[in-house]
Write a structure and sequence with these properties.
It holds the Pfam family Glutaredoxin. One of its GO terms (cellular component) is cytoplasm. InterPro entries: GlrX-like_pln_2 (IPR011905), Glutaredoxin (IPR002109), Glutaredoxin_subgr (IPR014025), Thioredoxin-like_sf (IPR036249). The protein is an alpha+beta fold and 146 residues long. It has five helices and six strands. It has a four-stranded mixed beta sheet, with helices on one face. It has a two-stranded antiparallel ribbon with strand order 1-2. Strand 1 and strand 2 form a beta hairpin. The longest helix is centred in the middle third of the chain and has 12 residues. The termini are far apart.
Length: 146
Amino acid sequence: MQGVRHYVPLSDGGVRLELTPTTTSPLAISVAESTEMRIQRLIYENPVIIFSRSSCCMCHVMKLLLSTVGVHPTVIELEEDEIGVFTVQGSAATNHHVNGGGGGVPALYIGGTSVGGLESLVALHLSGHLVAKLMEVGVLRNTMVF
């Protein structure tokens, strides 16, 4: 696959792709693209996406919860300078309500809308609205037979 520098299977069933800058791959990374624009593009292109730090235990719990309902989100591990996009007031990412109001990562987006962090995801699940939201964006189907 062009543009993929390194492919690593993860213990939780996901994969980690390290991409190289190229203009010939459908997975192309634009070197000129700002961090903020790249994050906005990823939010738009992925129905369920988590932005995280490397080895984030809260992100792991978020992935486990989502996988129990049948969804395997895209997970983007950010570098320290990229995490600032989620905490700087007025940035594109903070135009959404990130991490239950505290800003930062992990930050979950479903259907291009910020859900927040782990606490917000758990609250959405416990209120019974998580599955409906996932169905609304098309990542889950109603398989109940009446």
